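Sanity check

After download, print the first record. It should look like this:
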Amino acid sequence: MKPLPREFAALNVSRETEDRLNAFVALFQKWAKTINLVAPSTLAEVWSRHVVDSMQIYALYSGPRIWADLGSGGGFPGIVTGILLAGAGDGWVHLIESNNKKAAFLRTAIRETGARASVHAIRIEEAPAAIAHCDAISARALADLDLLMDFGWPWAERNPDLRFFLHKGRDYQREVDKALGRWRFDLVKHASVVEPDSVVLELSKLSRRRE
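Expected structure tokens:
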């Protein structure tokens, strides 16, 4: 495992957690040879581009939370969050992935790393009926902010303290402006520790604007 940026010192990652992360990366690299889990151009930088990028989420909202990870794909950030929760001994990640091959990879990753997570091989629109509650929602390279609000709204109605942690690129302000046409929310922009032009958007107190 490569040294982590100083921003993650507070996570106090144990040797056992390091071993789990290493096991996950080895498994990811094996499966990525046959399944398109991430952009092929980023495979050589799996630690910086994917693992550390995913760890930002837990660093921002650590503790025994219940997460819904939308479009979990290659396990970033959902499996990484689940591994960090395993180190804490509490909390859970619901991994939502409708692609059966990717869902099979995620189940294998959970089994081999001990991540505190489970896989729901269903469409995101169906997930609120299957998952009654979550404290936080994560999504990475999935959809426009406005659509992500639609996905998360059923959970936000049940839990007024729900938070979203969403990786976004340099064009994030356009997405924010568009979403504000339909939604009200509190917003905190966290600078990415991986990509200078990227952010993690933390949203809370989501409500619909009147039509």
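If your output differs, re-run the checksum step. Summary of this record's structure: Strands lie at 66-70, 92-96, 117-120, 136-140, 163-168, 183-191, 199-208.
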